Structure prediction request, 287 residues.
Amino acid sequence: MLCSQVETPVNGRNFSEFTQSSFMNSNIKKNAAFTLMEMSIVLVIIGLVIGGVITGIEMVENAKINRQVTQIRQISEATSAFVLKYNSLPGDLANPDEYGITATKPGQIHSNGKIDDLNQAVYVRETGGEPTIFFQHLEGAKMLSQFLMPGNSNAGTCYGVTTGYPLALSINSKFGMIAATIRDRNYLFLGITNCASGILWIGSMSPNGFGAVNGVMTPLQAQRIDKKIDDGIPGSGRTTATVLSASNTDIDGTLDATANRCVTDNTSTKYNITNNSNWCRLLVPLQ
Prediction:
């Protein structure tokens, strides 16, 4: 006599139903766990990508800073070499053509051992003299490398000085620099935003008025350049954050003390590195 197989109920279900249900639940749990693992991997990959992008941006910014510092140092070295060879500062050499140096001649070259403009000062609204032909003399003497060849700093013309003078900044070729003797010391002024109508523009100064409100680099960029060359403090040392004189007519070494722009406050002790706008201009010693 054949005996029929009887399934013992488990929790009200027969064994086959129970085992099938358990197997399905097990698969669901495994699938859920695999999904969480996938999400974790994706999050890790996203983190790596973001970290790589941030690192890449930082590397690009560091490269810009290093190029600017290199440019400044090369100009300083070229200036020293020019003085040794011609016994004159670039821009102040009276008869450059006698030495095979082709350069624009301003109203007069003073040959007074200074880099000054038509009125033997550094008046922004009239600058068309030695500060703007400084780089022409260096280039004509073949003392600038291709890296330092003049670029375009939004330039028009300045008393016949060809487009490209002032020299373009490495950190941002839209802006430029000039050389000038200020308080009996020779400097590079990194702060020219335009050049037109016979006037060097600083900030948003217009040809017929004043109002130099912005600069050529961010406070963080200025701080990094200052640290590599000097002490990293805007109001001390040889490299300083600067603005126009009180009369807004010339570059005389006045410290930038306007709070919440290039510097944090009127003590000029810290660069305002939380501000990402181009508020800063620097005076950097040449020699």
